[in-house]
Amino acid sequence: MNDLNSTINERNFHISQLANKSIRALNFIIDSVVIFILNYLVLLNFGSINPINKSNETIYNPTFILIFLAYYIVFEYFTGKTIGKFITKTTVLTDGGLKPTFINIVGRSLSRIIPFEPISCMISDKAHGWHDSLSKTIVIPDSNL
């Protein structure tokens, strides 16, 4: 794949552009807030945290990683979108322009655990992060579908 901005898939539609860095950053922020809220609610329900004593570091809890992975796998596999992508009107596709397979999405989700991975979209000239390149996926605006 030489130029992701001019990918043509098997269904013969042209993807004119990827979602830009601002949109990708907004997706990340929205999804992070949702994941932290879900994690907090789950831990609160299981009595793992006390809302009065906020000394617990929920990000280091194994539950956080499970919620993190489940959130991305379930949403992106079944809908091609996370809550952030619904709000920003973007979609995950394979770099060939098709619906990602379960393996694409699991690889994409696991790749997000790589340290400093969130900044990979910001340092890429095409807002294409490591979780995109390793899983052979792209994020495009819905207007390009």
Q: Would you mind describing this structure in some detail?
A:
This protein has 145 residues and is mainly alpha-helical. The chain has one domain (18-144). 48% of the residues lie in helices and 7% in strands. The chain contains 6 helices and 2 strands, in the order αααβαααβ. The chain has helices at 21-45, 62-79, 83-88, 102-111, 120-123, 130-135; strands spanning 90-94, 137-141. Strands 1-2 form a two-stranded antiparallel ribbon. The protein is globular, with a radius of gyration of 16 Å. Mean pLDDT is 82; it is low at 1-15.
Secondary structure elements and pairings:
Layout (H helix, E strand, L loop, with lengths): L20 H25 L16 H18 L3 H6 L1 E5 L7 H10 L8 H4 L6 H6 L1 E5 L4
